[in-house]
Every structure is written in structure tokens, then in C-alpha cells.
Amino acid sequence: MNRRTVFFVSDQTGVTAETMGHSLLTQFEGQEFRQVTLPFIASVDKAEEAVRKINATGHEDGWRPIVFSTLVKEDLRRVVKSSNGLFLDFFDAFLGPLEGELRVKSSERAGRAHGIADQLVYSTRIEATNFALAADDGAITADYERADVILIGVSRSGKTPTCIYMAMQYGVFAANYPFTEEDFEGKQLPAMLRPFTAKLFGLTIAPQRLQQIRNERRPGSRYAALAQCEFEVRCAEALFNRYSVPYLDTTECSIEEIASRVIDRMGIERRLRP
Question: Which of 125, 151, 218, 241 is such that its CA lies 20 to 30 A from the CA of 110?
Fold first, then answer.
């Protein structure tokens, strides 16, 4: 199967185009994509330069590129649409129907999705991210009172990236605590966690997948042995069940899906909207 080049074209950072484009591309398993982001296409000159890059790539690849666009201004969309790529524009698809339904013309102002003009939003994101970093891997347990959620589970089950993602995307104050063998000996939750059982959410993972992840980090170690992974996962799930802690199997979940499921099941209010 031929590798296809995908362009994400935006008048700002390109994050929105990447996020929405990735959601579609993941539906095509086995297809290889080379991904190129063209951010800050805010003038006709830059749009024309983007067209030249897209066309040159198509000529080199022998296949027309796929172009995901979140360009707000119609004149810029028109220029990029003239390229030899398959042009898929999110604003083109949705603005027209919305304008018709609302009977209001859109403002065509770029940067609305990711601007930091709202300092409260920006400050919330920074504060939540700092909290997640400070409370990572049980480093600081004194601030658990401030946490919206405390993720618990064995090492390498997805706790840290999920906490960071929830903080940056939704302004959620998320801490995490990794179980150790000492925590399993008494078959009880660690003392610092017991006052916060209502905030606990567990992450588990298939032992075979856990072994793969740990073996990449510390190959051939006891830490990465399948028997050790099976033991830790079994003990962690026993604690979840004993203390009625809700938990999720992350084996086949993306970080985005884990975060969404945690927020939904815990009834956490999102302070930010992506």
C-alpha cells in the first residue's frame, strides 16, 4: 500500500486541523501517512506558497496529497483549494449550513479556537498543568485536596500522559499515584489515598501489553517480566474492587479516550473546552 502525504493547513497553529484530521485518518488501518503541517497561512502569498508545496509533493509522490484545512477566510480557502490535492475543509463544510440556519454571516476571524486573549482560560490551563506535573507519580500528596481526580494503577498504565492531557485540554486538576509492591503487601490502599476514595479512578492494562511497554524502558529486568506484570495487575484490580474504585482497561485506548472516559464517569466539570 502506497504511503500518502497529508497536509494540515491552518491560519493559526494547525492544532485543530491536526486533531480533526487525525480522527479521520485513524479509520484507515494499515494505510501509512506522511503528515505535514503548514501553520499561519494568513495571506494570499502564503496560501500560494502552500499550493506550490502541495503540488510539488504530489508530483514527487505520484499520488495527489490529502489536504485538511481550517482556513477561516474564504479567499485563502479558494487559493488552497486550487491545488492538486484532495481538499477537505472543515469550515467550508460547516460554516455555510450554520450561516443558513442562524441567518447570520460568520465573522471570518482567524484564531478564535486557540487564542489566549482570555487570560483566565490561559491561566487555568497553566495552573492545571503545573498541578499535574507537581503531583505526578505521587511526588506531592499534600495537595490531593485540590485534585479533581487521582489516577491510580501500576507503573506504565497511562496515568501520567492522561493527567497532562486532562490538564492542558480541559483544565482538570489531575494527580496520579503509582502502586508499588509495598502497597500490595497489606492489601490496603496506601494511607495517603484513603481520605480521598471519592476522587480515585483506577487504570489497568493487559499484562502482556504492560510487559511490552516496560521492556522498552528496562529490557530483561524483573520489572518487565510477564509474571511480575501479571502479579501487579492482579493486585491492583483487587484493590480497585475492594474499595469500589471505578477503573478502566487502557490496553486499547488512546490517551484522548482515557481522559474522556475518566471525566465522564467521575462527573468532572471541564473548566476548558478544546
Answer: 125
- Quote the CA–CA distance of 130 and 74 in Å, as a whole number: 39
How far, rounded to the nearest angstrom, does the alpha carbon of residue 178 sit from its chain's CA centroid? 21
Per-residue pLDDT reduced to its tens digit, 29-48? 889 999 999 999 999 999 99
- Residue 9 to residue 4: CA distance in whole angstroms: 16
What is the CATH architecture assignment of 119-266? 3-Layer(aba) Sandwich (3.40)
Q: Which of 82, 86, 51 is nearest to 67 (CA)?
A: 86
**Secondary structure letter of residue 175 according to DSSP:** E
For the chain, the structural domain boundaries read 4-102, 119-266
Cα–Cα distances in angstroms (integers) from residue 42 to residues 73, 109, 169, 239, in the given order: 9, 11, 25, 54
Note the pTM of the prediction, 2 decimals.
0.65
Q: How far is CA 112 from the centre of its chain?
A: 20
- 243 in Cβ contact with 196 (< 8 Å): no
For residue 9, the SS3 value is: strand
SS3 108: coil
